[in-house]
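Subject: Interface between my chains keeps coming out wrong

I've been trying for a while to get a sensible model of this assembly. When I model each chain on its own everything looks fine, but I need the whole thing in one frame so I can look at the contacts. Pasting all components below, labels as-is. Any help appreciated, I'm running out of ideas.
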Amino acid sequence: MSAVSVQAIVGAAPSPIEAPDVDYATISPLLIILGAAVLGVLVEAFVPRAYRFVTQIAVAVVGVVAAFVATVVVGAGLDTVDGEVTGRGGPTAMGSLSVDGPAVVTWAMLLFFGLLGVLLFAERRLDGGLSAFTSQASTPPGSADERHATRLRIEHSEVFPLAMFALGGMMFFASANDLLGMFVALEVLSLPLYLMCGLARRRRLLSQEAAMKYFLLGAFSSAFFLYGIAMVYGYAGSFGLAEISTAVSSQIGGQNLLLAGMALILVGLLFKVAAVPFHAWTPDVYQGAPTPVTAFMAAGTKAAAFVAMLRIFFVAFGGARWDWAPAVWAIAIITMLFGAIASIAQTDVKRMLAYSSIAHAGFLLVGMAGLTSGDGVTSVSAVLFYLVAYGAAAIGAFAVVTLVRDAGGETTHLGRWAGLGKESPVLAVAFTIFLLSFAGIPLTGGFISKWSVFAAAWDGGAWPLVVVGVVASALALFFYIRVVVLLFFAPPQGDGPTVAVPSPLTWSVVAITVAVTIVLGVLPGPLLDLVQQAGAFVR
Amino acid sequence: MTAFWLLAPIMVVAALGVVLSRKAVHSALCLAVVMISLAMMYAMQDAPFLFAVQIIVYTGAIMMLFLFVLMLVGVDKTDSLVETIKGQRLVAIVLGLLFGGVLVTVVAQAFVGPVVGLGEANADGNVHGLAKLLFNRYVFAFEATSALLITAVLGAMVLAHRERLEPRRTQRDLALERMQRYAEHGEHPGNLPTPGVYARHNAVDVPALLPDGSTSEISTSKTLRDRGVVRDGAFAGDVSVTMRRLEADGPERGRVEPPPSTPARHDGEEDL
Amino acid sequence: MTSMSSIVLAASEHADVVPVAADGVFSWMWLLVAIPAVSAAILLIGDGAGDHGPLDRFGHLLGTAAAIASFVVGVVGFVALLGQDVAERAVTQDLWTWMQVGGFDVTMSVYYDQLSALFVLLITGVGSLIHVYSIGYMAHDPRKRRFFGFLNLFIAAMLVLVLAGDYLVLFLGWEGVGLASYLLIGFWQEKRSAAVAAKKAFIVNRVGDLGLALGIMLMFAQFGTTNIHEVGLNVTNASQSVATALGLLLLLGACGKSAQVPLQSWLLDAMEGPTPVSALIHAATMVTAGVYLVVRSAAIYDLSEVARTAVVIVGCVTLLFGAWIGCAKDDIKKALAGSTMSQIGYMMLAAGLGPAGYAFAIFHLITHGFFKANMFLGAGSVMHGMNDDVDMRHYGALRKLMPLTFITFAMGYLAIIGFPGFSGFFSKDRIIESAFATNFWAGLAALLGAGVTAFYMTRVMILTFFGERRWREDVHPHESPKIMTVPLIVLAALSVVGGALTFSDWIEDWLTPVTGSEHHELGVPAWVITLIIVAVVAVGASLAYVLFARRDVPDTAPQQVSVFTRAGRADLYGDAVNEAVFMRPGQYLTRSLVYVDGTGIDGAVTGTAELVGDGARGLRRLQTGFVRTYAAEIFGGALVLVLALLAVNLA
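Reply #2:
Try treating it as a single job with all components included. I did that and got this:
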């Protein structure tokens, strides 16, 4: 230890540290959700078992709704910032968070997904009065202890606070204004998800395997993300997105450090959004995780990670656009084609939805290649719209998956879905609507969203992406229609699928998501207006 | 910089050791080397607080926890290192070398100048400067980390904690149950014989001897029996050896030496 | 195509139509779509599946009533349009704004003009007749209700297509009719051939749709609008190459939907659907949507000679191609399908001639809608009496036993070969004349086609209604019930008098505001051409008479036949080409991807489902086994990504 530092330790009379200046009202949605999560932990500790599950639901629902109201209030009060591009709001909490238009829209979107997710988590009528989560995660699968715990009707109500933590992490991720915050947010959102993936009641080995894979690969990819952050810090000397942006546009030298840093940060983010070649975990994890968790994860993670990706790459690395754009183009093309083609071969509904999720990541990347500002559809607004439409349809589709069951729990083999149209026409029609939306058929939200990302990309000069996108959509359409035909026209195997009668919770999720999917297809105007007005990112 | 060049190779070798060791304990010890070296690097860069924290928290607390867990799991447990996927090792090695090469090149090309701003950052002392960042600029990220910690604790509870599903059984219940088993299956209700009784050693892996000189299987722990590490505790061999010695030694009678070779596992049969 | 290059078209002629806002009767035109759509929704969602509720008993009546109601609205609208000034015959009504972003907005609107009006009458009129006919034809099918639901769905989608004022809305209808067609071809999906045919139709159509979709995007990119009218206005300011690109992309779309070469292969297989479907969708209406698209986009084609030439080539090739196939087929429906392809080739050819031919394309489209629907329904009636046997070699001498079917079929026959006085005579004559006037070779192809048409249609006629009985033993031919013959009679009458549309050039004048008009003078008087055509037709018909009426018809198709017949029987190897060029590589692609996915990535987990039962052993193998593969993949991806970004800097 050198002499300087010794002196520093014992040094005399340091100047006082000022209290941080945080505008609590502006970040209240985030605080409410994290508060609800902490409250949930306390509920877990102090409320008697008989009331615990219901209390947890109440805390989560009230928390999400309150946060949503707060988000609306915050959103309405954002000041308009005029610059090169119009934006709203700006950094707060000492510059850690940027509560701007896109952030607030994403918060609202995530809270909406969160509410739907909580409703699915709370469903207890499908599996003999028990939730979709295992009775005791610590008991070995198939053991006598497990059966005993199930007999005693014990449940893991910890999933609610965990979901709230994940939701809080997602909201933080979408609005973080420096790379350090982003990394913390990434971990806050991931860790609860890793856990929840392993808590399925049925097919626990598959579920635990999924959680393990997700955890290991997630940790692996965060390491890349962190390494990238370190390199970018080395280049720019700061974690703040604004400072990095300044360095990118003015600094000469050390370019390779920046490029490698960008690439590694991109790896971490592309892993989260499930883009090829960082997608391998998606089918396994989507299949193994409890279906309500899959629904929440598919919609929420993708939304948060995409908004974060846009924020980093548009705000911090906007000046180096032509360095990263070709790579994003290539990945978008590979991802779209891979997702569309690979989904053709799937025989499991959840894996099929996973591959569809991969293909949608590709389409969203097309949106990322679009215009950053201008008169038409900008990248940010197109991607935001897409995320709402995709998230709603994905949650709805997974909600339908929870309802088609046989003696061993959910039956996800496609063959077993044959003849669902006869067994439950309403459910089959709902699933068809989701599939058509995934396929981008007009009059569904999927069409408008595909159209908007393609329009943004076209305006941004990325026409090859649009062409490939159209081809991939056509390929995918074939597959989705095949499933629709299977649902309605194929003769059922054996007795055909059984549709469990759920409580109003799941029904309302299906109804809401169907309504959103249709409304976004027929009357997309209001939401398109909203995402347009959200404007650009403010740093 | 000299310290860096001294420490860096040690760290890299130790880090490779973490990954490549066959035994978990070795990995953990290598990790400790990495962490201590890291702490020294902090110190070198005028960050005494981080240095202390690194030593106390990581090397002190976390590494010890690791080692505890490893000891509980079993120190001598090694992972099967048979690679079943064809080409996986080769791919991993090639990718690793390439990736490392690329990153080393990139970092080496980066502009390296004199350290600036260190004095400014440490103007009021290292701890003070750190506090200023943590509780001011990065206060939100710092607070958000608590969410991470709560999640981790909650997760550990969910995955590992097994709740008591029924009232704790009292001594009385257990005794009743034992007698019940005796009545029904004839299971011995009393204690099992303790290991080492009348045997050469009273260690846990040496079975007790019965009055007829044979060993009692049930006196040793089942785990040890399954592992096959139970030793032979019979006197028979020792007595004969001792007798031979006594006869041979003559003048130095009374001195008992250990048998010429330590009895190996499973070789007790012929001695009996 | 030397003579075409000399034509400089006055493109602005029809672009100056200013649509007027709808009022009065025209504000109710949305009912055209709404009625069958609501009916389809009721029939398809309806009450629970499979029970015998009121909808199962009366559903077909509801469906038919919906089609007829739509027809009535169409007639009212048409009459009202007749009463309008010529300048005000393009009526538009905005229903709601579908999407609006920045300067771009798509309005759900009804665009009703002279062209749409004719189509509406054709679709709803022929559609209603076919609904009526289906009541008899599908009487014993347990899933009748669903059939009528699909038919209504088709009518609604087709009307969306022709009433669209915006290419995006048109695309919506385009996809809608594709879906309805897919569902109806595969209606008897328990037959494997039907399911496969449906899939094929769907996939081949996707290729065409891709063209249309790209075309629409190009419009949006170039003009910032997809409104048909505004695109027409803007395209005049755009460069030649843009117009050409648009024209070719739209042509690709048209080829898919109208079964034109090279996307023709699905139509013959589509005959697996119930016969009323073949009549309505695969003869009278949907397959002509491609022609509609070309005519509707007249403004674009007017500007690009290359695109027009391409349309002419596609039309000529297809009309000969279809005729050839028609000669070789023994399946009555496939012979008719080949004929349909060929006749649509005529329409395409006419549409490719520019303003000189648009009106004739539409004219032939309408008369073809009448006589081909008539003949398909007649074929259905024959099949109905012959226990659903479709092989013409098993027919013969049916004229006595099915007099009504015979007479009506004969009317259709005379119309299609262009017997003087019948509707086909006028419409085909006009096309051949204009073709000659524009380009000699195109005219020659059309003339040759007319002769071949006469040949194969005469063959169908003779094999079916004349000659010896060659029935199977358990077949007792009988006339169909009235509910099936009445539509036949109506359509036969229309096949006869349909030519009246061209008297005193009514249809040309009527369509001029939409398509423009232009007249090319022929080197010879028109009647000379007419005479030549009639002579060629007579030769074709006599040849067929000599070949088939004078000789015995073998019960099975002879195998020792010429290369031409063999090629025709094999649909001119269209499937073989598709298979070699598209399907195999595609399959290899999917298979290799699936292989990568299956072994490296996926095998683990498809395995997992089965291995769960095996317990911990399998699981452990998976856990320690495959995450590292994933990790290696991520690692490799990261390396490539880093190198890619660095490469950008180096470059």
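Reply #3:
Confirming on my end. Chain B has a mean pLDDT of 81.
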